[in-house]
Design a protein that fits this description.
The chain contains 2 helices and no strands. The chain has 36 residues and is an all-alpha fold. Helix 1 runs antiparallel to helix 2. The chain is elongated. It starts with a helix and ends with a helix.
Length: 36
């Protein structure tokens, strides 16, 4: 199920973005280093 993979990847990135916007530089680095 390719769609399911895209949904989980989207949710994971959404989680990282939310943490990054809260001002945590460690998660901000993980966001940019993540290749999916």
């Amino acid at each position: 199920m390719v769609i399911l993979i895209h949904i989980t990847t989207f949710l994971k990135h959404l989680f990282y973005i939310t943490i990054a916007l809260s001002g945590n530089p460690k998660f901000n680095c993980n966001l940019f280093n993540d290749k999916g």
